Amino acid sequence: SETIERHEFGAEVGRLLDLVVHALYSDREIFLRELVANAADAMDRRRFEALTSAASALPADAKVRIAPDKEARTLTVSDAGIGMTKEDLATNLGTIARSGTRAFSQTLESAKAEDRPSLIGQFGVGFYSAFMVADRVTVTSRRAGSDEAWTWASEGQGNYTLEPATRAEPGTDIVLHLKGDADEYLEPYRLDHLVRKWADFITVPIAVVRDGKDESANQGTALWRKAKSEVTEEQYEAFYHSIGMNFDKPWATLHWRAEGQLEFAALLFIPGSKPFQALENERQSKVRLHVRRMFITDEAELLPPWLRFVQGVVDTEDLPLNVSREMLQSTPALARIRRAVTGRVVSELATRAKDAEGYQAFWENFGPVLKEGIYEDFERRGEIAPLLRFRSSAVEGWTSLPDYVSRMKDGQEAIYYLVADDAEALKSSPQLEGFKARGLEVLLLSDHVDAFWPDQLGSFEEKPLRSITKGGLDLSKFALEGEQPEAPEGIDAFVAAVKTALGSEVSDVRTTDRLVDSAVVLSAGTGGPDLQMQRLMRRAGR
Ligand code: ADP
Fold this sequence. Notes:
Structural class: alpha+beta
Number of strands: 19
Bound molecules: adenosine-5'-diphosphate
Number of helices: 17
Radius of gyration: 32 Å
Strand content: 15-25%
Helix content: 25-40%
Strand order of the largest sheet: 1-6-5-4-7-3-2-8-9
């Protein structure tokens, strides 16, 4: 009819649409997040506008409604939000009005083809992501405060149409005519799942229509944005259970709000048990990043890998909703948030480490991961070291570096340690004999990472860390606590004979004060790697 106006998309929109639709993506489900976020924003804006103009008050039962229609093969997302005028439709949906999207679109264009799916998947491209699942989209909208309604329609192919429409109330309906391969978005259970996954904590009600009835799909409380005093332990736990495959009680719950230069709310958990999935496989922190409640990504690496056992949410005002991964990684606000969040977790650990029994549970689950921080995080090394716990030749249970130092003998300059694969083998190692006989304590290390971090740390409270399997340790200044053994007769001739027999297999054969009961012990050179490191290097084929 003559009332239909035909318009060309802005050149940038055409390119963006093309990129979005033709990039092969595995995450196209995020279109729902984008549409629901827009709908929720529109409702927030209407609520805000109603403060100054009674005419457009948001109805009390306003919600975002997601309605699949199997016969028509459409999915409709409706809201009672602020709505759009004809001009709004043309500007917002026909051009790239926002600099964020423009920059994102440029990033997308310059990204390698194989990187595009994850860019789109992680950050979406707002409204246009609808064309990932639909070959035709119509948007019918009525601006609050106006009687006029308009329908915008497009097949995402370079042009769109505008025509007059009717809508009883202010708000917007977005109708997606689904592509042949997008049937899954007609299933209420699938839509329900997506809302839970992407938008569960949006504060406006979201309903999925099932058998003609609206069913609430989100909980709608951004728990982390509430004051601590308003949240019960049960609510914390329910949230903790909802964010990961957690069935236990959290060992620690950290809930705080940063205000001032940085604005964010954080709700983090340290699990009470080790996750089934080994922390060795996945090294990235999965703490979720939200921007103004909307879930953005769980790949923002909000915490360093050595705190990857921490779970939860950080929600900030300081980032735009639509930000590409590259932009995210380089934004200074995110770097500052990371620092603040990491510092908070470390200081929480320091506080809780004072309760030896309580801390033990944490240590036994995540200690080996925390140790990685010593060689990965130069800056935090000093804070991490006192948080480490060890088995020891001198005490039962766990001990720490400060405790070790407080027990050091007069004249003892170094912190002694022994690394091996097997904790049990450590206790009876001949390497320990001479130390035990002189009352010198040795830390016993048997985690994977123990071969690496002591060299990196170097020293603690100015006491160097010394592997006792390295040569060059002189124990003669420490008196034996038991009987004094006699030097056996003919020892020099014996040593010379062994040396000749082994030839170039060894670099030296010597008498030692490191043994008491055993006859011989293998020792590493003074420089170079210790025995455990040599074993690892051999295993790695070096
Ligand atoms: P973004 O939401 O990140 O700004 P989009 O491409 O998703 O980008 O949307 C562009 C603009 O269109 C929005 O900023 C908003 O002004 C308008 N818009 C989109 N959906 C709606 C809606 N449901 N109600 C009102 N306005 C909307």
